[in-house]
Amino acid sequence: MSLRTPLCDLLGIEYPIVQSGMGSAAGPELAAEVSRAGGLGIVAGLGVTADELRKRIRHVRSVTDRPFGVNQWLHTELRPPVDPARVPAATMRAVQTQLNVFRERLGIPTTDQPAPGMPDLIDEEFAVILEERVPVWSIGLGNPEPAMVRRCHERGIKVVAMVATVEDARAVEANGVDIVVAQGGEAGGHRSTWVKKPREEASVATLTLVPQVVDAVRVPVVAAGGIADGRGLVAALALGAVGALLGTRFVATRESMASEVWKKRLLESDGGTTLTEAYTGLWARSLRNRFTEDYAASGAPVLPTLMQQRAALDVFAAAAQQRDAEYTALYAGQSTGLVHDLPGAAEVVERIAREAEAVLVRLRAMGGPR
After folding, report:
1. ∠ CA(184), CA(326), CA(348), 5° rounding?
2. N or C: which end of the chain has fewer CB within 10 A?
3. Residue 11 and residue 234: Cα distance in Å, rounded?
4. Residue 305 per-residue DSSP state
5. What is the mean pLDDT of residues 74-93?
6. Where exactly are the structural domains of the chain?
């Protein structure tokens, strides 16, 4: 039984399965394997220089001739990045004071120096995407300007934007995107908004959000959040979506750039996660660890978008070197309880497709949807 949906025809893929472009896991090898298997692989572009992004794009093309995408953030605090000089000294000091607690536990030097700001890379990254005529431009946190969408369309590039609210879905559609990804609150990683919203505001469950977005926009909708197998894909289709985007399931694959301690903790998890702003300054869903729990308990503030992450880079690097999962970023969605092995990414795509086809056969045998 065919799983072909309008998404397959629109993007030129075999299965309506999209891999999330999560920044620290989605390298070119992962994207290439997903695309080679018939899904849509996405290469992370966040914080990547033009030369490195071009290298990643060409690596994918050296492995497969199937469609793939590149993901960017267009968050308002990154266009341009917030200047560290604008952060009150008391805020910077409070953040470093709490991070120093973690530094002392890891046995690395403490510091009271201001955190560096993010480099301004979005425009040069976008230029590479246009020059390379990447088949799909994926936006994780942001509303692309109509002129950017138009420039993509002039080069035959499809534009996909992820949102976490119905209001934002209408906004990205109005600016011309081809596909909207509705990100339910179960999803791992960052809440896909372009301004920081209160903790719970952008955490509507997938089961509730997807049909609302389907009803609100005219472009195809892809479901994201809590999906890790064929059952989830079929459920997404039943909600009116034309496909599913998966992140956590692809983190736990051999080709993922995620660290071994991250993958190990994910496989050991029973599905318990938390929303934390301690990693980057933006709300993100991750596994609980000492970093998320102790930072929240301290009452320390957080720095603007990704400046918080740059302040803690030495903590994360030391934890990775010591293979200490308690002080590293462990992004994961509530589907972790469905992830129990570490296969290749192509095997994940093929397995989900088989499972979904089997579910559809069973539903038809029961007199279900035809």
Report:
1. 45
2. C
3. 19
4. T
5. 94
6. 1-81+119-257+340-370, 83-116+259-338
How does DSSP assign 23-86, residue by residue?
Answer: TTT--HHHHHHHHHTTSBEEEE-TT--HHHHHHHHHHHHHH--S-EEEEE---TTBTTBPPGGG
Q: What is the pLDDT of residues 9-54, one digit of tens each?
A: 999 999 999 999 887 899 999 999 999 999 999 999 999 999 999 9
Look up residue 163 and give its two tokens.
């949102």
Give Cβ neighbours of residue 177 (< 8 Å, ≥ 6 apart). 139, 144, 149, 159, 160, 161, 219
Tell me the backbone φ, ψ of residue 110, rounded to 5 degrees: -85, 170
The tens digit of pLDDT for each residue in 116-149 reads 989 999 999 999 999 999 999 999 999 999 999 9
How many whole angstroms separate alpha carbon 370 and alpha carbon 352? Answer: 20
For the record, the structure tokens of 80 come out as 């341009």
Q: What does the angle CA 7 – CA 204 – CA 230 come to, to the nearest 5 degrees?
A: 40
Among the residue ranges 127-136, 216-225, 266-275, the one predicted with the least confidence is: 266-275
Q: Answer yes or no: pTM beyond 0.90.
A: yes
**Higher local confidence (pLDDT), 2 or 110:** 110
Q: Which residue has the tokens 């896909």?
A: 192
- In the prediction, which pLDDT does 368 show? 52
d(CA 82, CA 306): 9
The 10s digit of each residue's pLDDT in 152-196 is 999 999 999 999 999 999 999 999 999 999 999 999 999 999 999
CB burial of residue 107 (10 Å; 0-12, 13-18, 19+): exposed
Pairing of strands 243-246, 158-163: unpaired
Q: Which two tokens stand for residue 321?
A: 């070197």
Q: How far apart are the first and last CA of the chain?
A: 11
Distant-in-sequence, close-in-space partners of 288: CB < 8 Å, separation ≥ 6:
272, 273, 274
pLDDT score of 314 more than 80: yes
> Looking at the domain that runs over 1-81+119-257+340-370, which CATH code has it been given?
3.20.20.70
Distance from the Cα of residue 334 to its chain's centroid: 14
